[in-house]
Every structure is written in structure tokens, then in C-alpha cells.
Amino acid sequence: MSHAPLQLGKLTITIVERDGEVTYYFSGFVDEQFRHKDVPRITKSKIVFDLEGITHFNSCGIREWIYLVRDISQLGKLHYRKCSVAVIDQINMVPDTLGKGVIESFFAPYFCPCSGEVNRLIQVQNFASQVESGKAPAFNCDSCGQPLEFDALEESYFLFASPTVSKAG
């Protein structure tokens, strides 16, 4: 069952329910117009936040986000999928952004001279030991076949996955 998209300022949330699972698709900017109390709470054993579309957070938005994560975590096991670079940056700065959730997959920034900046989706289960040790998985450019260069500081970007920090470990 799909719910009508919910527009909260510059953020759109689409909710899709399936047997035993509900997925919240977030897209846009989490800012002062985002109110956690306006987001429907749906109890399921598995709650998924698909975060590929989040482009930015501001300080008011992050406060509301943390309240949402705390509330939703009481209703089922929270899983994060397709965390955008903006989401990972926010989790690294404010670990409460993650709450008790588990990151299943996330995007990481890479660079190739032929194609510029490229974000690659990393499935945590496929690269768990590498990511936990703060090392970027190796990928080749889809256009030229050359190795992509990781385009951030590994020790900072993968901080969220450190066994001493991570809820996903």
C-alpha cells in the first residue's frame, strides 16, 4: 500500500507498506519546515528509511530528524538504505542522526578525470570489514575503466562504521 506523498517544506516523504515492512522514501532538504510530528508513525517489524534523495540538513532540521528517529525506533527495527553523502556527513557530525538504526547501504564520493565526481553505492554486507577499518572499496570508472579515486578523507568519511561508533557493526 502506498500513501500519498507528504510535502514538508523542501522535503518530500513517500511511504510504502508491504508485509512486515514499511519504507519511507525521503527526498530534498531537511530544514526548519520539517516537523517530525507530521510524519505518520507506522508499526512494522522492519522500518526502512531510503535516504538517497536527501541533499542537505540544517541545524533545525537535524533536531527534528533526531526526534523522528527516536520515535520510529520504538515501532520496529530501523534500517537505512542508500544513505546519500549528505546523510553520511551528518551521521559523522551528529551520531544521534543514526539513532539505533542499521546502515544497509550508502553512497560514497569518488572521482575520475574523465567523468568527474561519481557517487558509488556501497552495500555494507559486501564490504563490512573494509568499511569498518575505514578503507574505501575500490571501483573502476564505468566510462574509461580506470580506478576511481576516493574523493574524501577515509578516516573521516567512514567514521560512522567504526566498531566503536557504529550501530551497524
Give structural notes.
- The protein has helices spanning 59-72, 85-93, 124-132, 154-157; strands at 6-8, 11-18, 21-30, 46-57, 77-81, 102-103, 105-112, 116-123, 149-150.
- Strand 2 (11-18) and strand 3 form a beta hairpin.
- Helix content is 21%, strand content 34%.
- With 169 residues, it is α/β, with parallel strands linked by helices.
- It has one domain: STAS domain (Transcription Regulator spoIIAA).
- The relative contact order is 0.12.
- It is globular, with a radius of gyration of 16 Å.
- The protein starts with 5 loop residues before the first strand and ends in a 12-residue tail after the last helix.
Residue stretches low in confidence (pLDDT < 50, at least 5 long) are: 165-169
**CATH superfamily grouping:** STAS domain
By DSSP, the count of extended strands is: 9
Order of helical and strand elements: EEEEHEHEEEHEH
Termini separation: 32 Å
Write a concise synopsis of the structure shown.
By secondary structure, the protein is of the alpha/beta class.
Q: Helices and strands in order, then pairings?
A:
Blueprint: E1 6-8, E2 11-18, E3 21-30, E4 46-57, H1 59-72, E5 77-81, H2 85-93, E6 102-103, E7 105-112, E8 116-123, H3 124-132, E9 149-150, H4 154-157
Parallel strand pairs: 3-4, 4-5, 5-6
Antiparallel strand pairs: 1-2, 2-3, 7-8, 7-9
